[in-house]
């Protein structure tokens, strides 16, 4: 049973989150103005600014929806829409190549010929955030020097999205925990990576699954398995 003090702490946290979301709206407005008025930015830089701003807006909107639902029965299916998975990957990689341009990291992705068929149902902001975090983990595992490869395959109406790095890998002990749904973080220094259980929960709510394979000193592969969106 939740005590009165716990309820008060929960209310205080929610109030702070609401204030934070409200406060973020102002700099977002500034970024929107900058998108249209900046004359000293190259077309590529303007594109990056547009992508980053849209991602921030998406994250804030998702937080706002979650708060208004009080976190109860807030399921991804309620917010899903068909998105092109290949286009989403390319958009995230544009951001990552710029974000990590100071590192010796090579990002590799070749869109399949059947790109137009790579549609899935999901909440795009949540999916982009998850994919972004998985790529961040791969970059961290490479320790400033390595290759992060993304592959996308379609087989029998199932899409297989793999994020592969040639980094330090994951120990057998941690890998065992990840595969058995035990809360643990990986990929970041001092263990502050993205919770694999959270990622698994997102994929499960989308009706998909995932696998993870890793070898110490050779790298890691995380594969997301999702059904293709079909018309009714």
Descriptive notes:
With 232 residues, the chain is an alpha+beta fold. The chain folds into two domains: 4-68, no CATH class; 82-227, Histidine kinase-like ATPase, C-terminal domain (Heat Shock Protein 90). It has six helices and nine strands; from the N terminus they run H-H-E-H-E-E-H-E-E-H-E-E-H-E-E. The strands form three sheets. A five-stranded mixed beta sheet has the order 2-4-5-9-8. Helix 2 (43-68) crosses helix 4 (124-142) and helix 3 crosses helix 4 (124-142). The chain is globular and about 50 Å long. It starts with a helix and ends in a 5-residue tail after the last strand. Residues 4-8 and 71-77 have low confidence and may be disordered.
At a glance:
This protein is α+β, with helices and mostly antiparallel strands and 232 residues long. It has two domains: 4-68, no CATH class; 82-227, Heat Shock Protein 90 (2-Layer Sandwich), CATH 3.30.565.10.
Second CATH tier, the architecture of the largest domain: 2-Layer Sandwich
Order of helices and strands: HHEHEEHEEHEEHEE
Biggest sheet record? 5 strands, mixed
- Largest beta sheet: strand ordering: 2-4-5-9-8
Number of DSSP E strands: 9
Strand content: 15-25%
Mean pLDDT rating: 80
**Distance linking N and C termini:** 44 Å
Task: Provide the domain count.
Answer: 2
Instruction: Assign the CATH class of the largest domain.
Output: Alpha Beta
Shape: globular
Report Rg. 19 Å
Q: State the secondary-structure class.
A: alpha+beta
